[in-house]
Amino acid sequence: MSRTVVVTGGAAGIGRGAVERFVAGGDQVVALDRDADALAALSDELDVRGITVDVGDREALSAAAQEVDQVDALVCAAGVQRYGTVVDTSYSVYDEVMAVNVGGVFFACQAFVPKLPRGGSVVVVASVQAYAAQKSVAAYSMGKGALLSLVRAMAVDHAPDGVRVNAVCPGSVDTPMLRTSAAEFGGGRSTDEVVAEWGRSHPLGRVATPGEVAEVIHFLASPAAAFVTGADVKVDGGLTAGLAVVLPEDQK
User: Fold this and answer.
1) Which of 1, 20, 195, 220 is the most exposed place for a label (fewest CB within 10 A)?
2) Which of 66 and 245 is assigned the larger pLDDT?
3) Where do the DSSP E strands lie in 34-138?
């Protein structure tokens, strides 16, 4: 049976992958994104409904929810990647990361969860950086960790309503966001070369595709995951399973 699925950040990256997967499964999709041009192109290509909204604007999120009559699942995929330590992160960067990566999820849920029926589902895109951080991502890592706590709290709060809430935690994924970072920190190397190098840090030897993360999102939002709530599922190619310890035989 066709459902209506709302996807924030639906015009690019993991959000777009989720949109494509739900459309392929026969669902109706409402995609929210602040990039009006990308959203228009997505709507034309996949016959989805697009609503231009910046998830960092809680009033705009509330207004967007009023435009949607039925919601069976909500996927919160909008996010930004910003760099800095706790010392050198500016107030404006901190505020942006919190407004989009944390507030964008909190207030999207505040707007859309009341519309979910019994059997409805929320899937939040967090990150492996909720568990462990690379250098200079203090605000980003903090925000992703906050999302896991929010998911657990919501899972408990809304279980009596029959609404499930889960998170996916990807490692490196081949998205425009990742490629922007690769271009910034590539030191003159090609973006493809940097992305491939980052992929080799994962035991599976590569970065993920948005579609691979979208498959897990689709599962968590489906009746097949009817007894799964409050979970955070790593989709990281084994990245967080290993320790960066070099044994003597590895040096031979």
Assistant:
1) 1
2) 66
3) 49-52, 73-76, 121-125
The pLDDT assigned to 252 comes to 58
In a domain, 245, yes or no: no
Residues 142 and 160 in one domain: yes
Place of tokens 């809430």: 165
At residue 251 the predicted structure's pLDDT band, cuts being 50, 70 and 90, is low
**250 domain-assigned:** no
Radius of gyration from C-alpha coordinates of the chain: 18
Q: Among 120, 231, 104, which Cα is nearest to 168's?
A: 231
Euclidean distance between CA atoms 168 and 209, whole angstroms: 14
Active site residue 83: no
Q: How far apart are the first and last CA of the chain?
A: 57
**Residues 180, 102 share a domain:** no
Domain of residue 203, residue span: 172-207
| Cα separation, 125 vs 229, whole angstroms | 14
